[in-house]
Amino acid sequence: MSGFRLTLKAPLSARVDASSLLPEALAGVSAADVAALTVPFGTGVALVGDLFEITAGSDEAVVFSGDPRLDYVGSGLAAGEIRVEGSVGVAAGAGMSGGRLVISRDAGDGLAAGLTGGRIEVFGSAGKNVGGPRPGERQGMRGGVVSIAGRVGDGLGARLRGGLILVGGDAGAGAADGLLAGTLAVAGRLGPGAGRGMKRGSILVTTAPEALATGFAEAGPQDFVALKLLARRVPELAALFGGTLSGRAVRLVGNRLAGGEGEILVLS
Amino acid sequence: MSAPAPLLINGVEIRDSFAEAFPMAGTRLIITADTPRWAHTAAASLTGFATSVIGCGCEAAIEREIPADETPDGRPGYAVLIFAMSLKDLKKIVPLRAGQCVLTSPTSALYSGLEGGSAVPLGKALRYFGDGHQMSKNLGGSRIWRIPVMEGEFVCDEIVGSTTAAVGGGNFLILARSRPAALAAAEAAVAAMGQVRGAIMPFPGGVVRSGSKVGSKYAGLIASSNDAYCPTLRGIAKTALPAEVESVLEIVIDGLSEGEVADSMRAGITAVCGLGAAGGVVAVDAGNYGGNLGPFHFKLHELMAQEAGR
Questions:
Q1: Distance separating alpha carbons of residues A93 and A120, to the nearest angstrom
Q2: Rounded distance, CA B22 to CA B83, Å?
Q3: Of A162, B91, B171, B305, which has the maximum CB count within 10 A?
Q4: Which 3 state secondary structure label does DSSP give B64?
């Protein structure tokens, strides 16, 4: 086994950029080597060994003890697994292209920004701009799967280009802003202003949005074979909505103000 | 030196002959619908007029019915196999037939039933019918297309895989004492062969009454009636039929692999022999072209050696 367990020696007093602590970067090195690495810490840098107790892992994953100031965990991950026991800071899983990131509690803002592949599971809640663009980029998440058990903040799926985001709780305001493609599934309530500038893609909800962005047309109810298909091909999608999808939904099409033909499917 | 003893199974002579078959490109599609009836209607339409590549451009038939709990969308379904002489032909014929016969059929959906090999377009070609309103979803490892139609939406996979290891033209002939006996034997064979996955019998009901030979006295005809097996020509043409044979039926088999064609032939001939001489079956023969045209030779004696106890 070449994995490591990185246990914080004390709650972080400043923000840490953990993007360099990836399984593939730590493969084949010793605990002492890991301890000698440096990571951005506040306005300076710190030795990993000064922040973490480093021990051999039980498998090939890199396991962190969490802290809300531990940022960029799993950012750039292409393969392998990272598990966090606790919460993380901002931009967890940003730019991931593969592998698996599991967070046992909450994630901060910018979770899964620019994700192109892989899988992120958050067992708590997540902050703003889940699956949005990385700084300087025009498109948000383009592939992969993100599952959040709890609620998410504002700006869910902004400029989403592909992939699937599953939210077990409520979503904040302004979800799917400029959404281009891909799928959002929200088991709770969708916050106000969702779908502004939405071009394509799908939002699946069970409760009709109360304050959708202007520009959606209701196409009425329909029995969607595609939902029955997705329920079988993507079991976690069905699981989010209680284990099954009847296929029946009301379709709202928009955002017509942006010439878009995205859809919000309000499941029966 | 004495001739080897004829191979007899339940009084039916298995002739020392072989079926000569050819390489083909093939694929499997899965069609579902709201009810078994409409799934069958779409499948039957898709595989209609697809008995022989000679005149139809492809060979196709229903492979099996699929219970709802085994289909991609949980609705009743059918698996069909389609074969063409080349991958290029297959890529042309599959979206053409899917567009005309499945897209148009009420409540239908169309899915890939074969992975790997060269991708044959389904929704990738059909999506344009949506006139810009079509939507795709890339989830669960594959892309689907949703095409708006008057009835609701037509859903299909973007592509289906294919194989160039398919084999077409496996066959055997049932030589019987009467037309009813030949038909009963053919029906028994088709029923048994229907249990073999990966192979189809593309002719009507799985049976051919007009087996052909290569060439004709008429210029431009590449095939004509197999006079050696026509009972009414006995005495004026070189015949392969003993005096007691009044009727011959042929079963042609296409499969996704050589082994599946062999399994299907074996199942069919075994069923024919099950009726036996008492059922009016005289012999089982096979069609070939001397072995010079097709690379796959299904020798009847080898196929049936185990059943004959040899």
A1: 7
A2: 11
A3: B171
A4: strand
Q: Same domain, yes or no, for A32 and A105?
A: no
Q: Which of A32, A8, A37 is nearest to A21 (CA)?
A: A37
> What Cα–Cα distance (Å) separates residue A68 from each residue in A106, A108, B145, B215?
8, 7, 41, 82
Query: Which chain A residue is nearest to residue B69, measuring alpha carbons?
Result: A232
Q: What mean pLDDT comes out for the span B14-33?
A: 97
- Domain count along chain B: 2
Residue A117 near residue A139 (C-beta atoms within 8 A):
no
Q: Give domain status of residue B254, yes or no.
A: yes
Residue B77: per-residue pLDDT: 98
CB–CB contact B74 A232 (8 Å):
yes
Q: What pLDDT, on the 0 to 100 scale, is given for residue A160?
A: 98
Verify that B139 and B54 share a domain, yes or no: yes
Q: Residue A46 to residues A43, A62, A108, B21: CA-CA distances in angstroms?
A: 10, 19, 22, 72
Tell me the average pLDDT across B6-22: 96
- Average model confidence (pLDDT) for chain B? 96
Tally C-beta pairs within 8 A across A and B. Answer: 52
Tell me the three state secondary structure of residue B82: strand
B74 min Cα distance to partner chain A (Å) = 7
3-state class (DSSP) for residue A98: coil
Cβ–Cβ contact A230 with B under 8 A: yes
Q: What residues make up the domain containing A213?
A: 72-267
Boundary residue ending a domain (A12, A32, A64): A64
Are residues B66 and B191 located together in one domain of the fold?
no
Which among B71, B107, B137 is the top mutation candidate for probing chain A, defined by the most A β-carbons within 10 Å of its own β-carbon? Answer: B137
Q: pLDDT band for position B231 (50/70/90)?
A: very high
Q: What was the pLDDT predicted at B1?
A: 52
Query: A58 falls in which pLDDT band (50, 70, 90)?
Result: confident
Compute the average pLDDT of residues B16-35: 97
Peptide bond between residue A255 and the one before it cis (omega within 30 degrees of 0) = yes
CA distance A112 to A122: 11
Give a yes or no: residue B309 inside a domain. Answer: no
Nearest CA in chain B to A226: B155
